Description:
Layout (H helix, E strand, L loop, with lengths): L4 H5 L10 E4 L1 H8 L5 E6 L3 H11 L3 E6 L4 E6 L7 E7 L5 H5 L10 E3 L2 E6 L4 H6 L2 E2 L6 H4 L2 H13 L2 E2 L1 H10 L8 H12 L4 H10 L2 H4 L8 H18 L11 H10 L3 H9 L8 H11 L4 H11 L3 H23 L5 H11 L2 H14 L8 H20 L1 H4 L7 H8 L5 H16 L5 H18 L1
Amino acid sequence: MQFPEIVLKIKEFVPEGEHLYLVGGAIRDALLGLPSKDFDFVCSSNPRAIAHKFADFYHGAFYMLDEERNTCRVIIDPRLPQRMIFDFSLIRGDSIIDDLMERDFTINAMAVDIDSPERIIDPSKGGRDLQQKRLRLVRNSAITDDPVRALRSIRYAVNLGLSIDSETVELIRSGSKGLVRVSKERKRDEIFKILEGNRVGAAMQLMEKFSIFENSNIQTGSDFNSGCRRSEVLDEMIGLLCSRSPADKNASFYKVSLLLRLGRFKDKFEEHFYQNKLTGRNRKSLLLLGTVLELNNDAQVNELSNQLALSTNEMSILHTIAGYMSYQQGFLQEKQNFDRRSIYRFFHCYGAVGVDLAFITLANYASRIGSEFIQQEWLRLLENCECLLQAWYYQPEIINPKPFLNGNDLMFHFDLNPGPLLGEIIEEMKEEQAAGNIQSKEDAIDWIDFRLLKNALKI
Length: 459
């Protein structure tokens, strides 16, 4: 097995007579030939001292995760996307075997002694299960002991292509009842990890099969399977346009046309959908969750946000999508061409969420089956979305024009008093600038003269 050199270097910080073991996912990923950036270590004594020395040597960031259990974390290159995370904790029980038998699934219950990295310690035959592509619990009580493992079972099964036998399915389903006792934050973090993985639609269907939504007090839509289908298409579209999914030589019409029209926005989409915020969760995952659950009113958004302890910004995004989807879809599909004024009004209303709405609308149409998918309609919809995205990313004079006159100018030129009227005039003037009807300060003065005259005549 191959590990990064920095992982094997850690043994230099282990006191003589102590043992340090690399455990869990890093072993599993190494056997599969997959890269890993998270490494879990257990040691026979004093993990804090080892972690401190390691962090100091590599100028990493040190954190205590659990004072009582003496569990700590070191992050190398914490400000970079390719940062590496190293967790250190004490062995549970009297030996590494005892520790491994306390873990969740056999594929995660393997370890290597850093002094002998060529030898795998595998008491529950996780290597064999990995080879046979089977997900199996270390012991029958594993999920009852920690119900969050029900969520992890889905992530491992879908991402690694593992089968789950009927006995394990029943243990997962019955064990998931304990999710009602689990904190909202832990459930949220595991669900978002699933949403960041592969085959999101299939994963969501497993969550429904295992009663995870029900036991987490999360309501699904009336047409759950369609929601899963749309989320899968949305995930596919975002991955394709951000080059996170390989382009198929025999790609379907919708994929080819999508790439031809929107492929040039790749870097912009990458930043929009995948850039993790302070929460550590990305926007793509939030949109997939909203699509699966078919959120279409404020009450549903509030309930979901409460159950998963979503941030204020995440909640705001979902409210905007839920509140305006029905109008927006018709707006995009029926309009033949967008003029500058329409584009300005669209983004003035939706802001950055307008990008999300464009993608969700495309995914909803692309998920149509057979004769319901009409190529001409799809191309018109795609053209409309391209027009909006072009303006959002490259035409600030349409999206947010700088007004030729400010409030002080209005009071000076037109002898107006401070008040709401000034703001109304400036907003209307910005729209006229975006539409191309005002192109200079002189145009702005003439337009305001006319507007004030109209108001005077009405009075």
